[in-house]
Fold this sequence. Notes:
alpha+beta, globular, 26% strand, two-stranded antiparallel ribbon
Amino acid sequence: MDLYWEDGFRIRVRADEHSAVVSGNREGLLSLAHHLLRLAEESPGSHIHLDEFNSLETDSAELILEKCL
């Protein structure tokens, strides 16, 4: 699946045993919104895997977005 990224995006994910926080600048949040819209049109089980080596800020927790039934 092709993902569209807004220029200058920044996204960070922090997680602990009780919560997860996804934060980003305007471009980062718009990019995530595009990804979710795209994922909604895919088959169940499709997913997007993001981590600090693939688009997230350094020291971010992994983020997996998955389409279910």
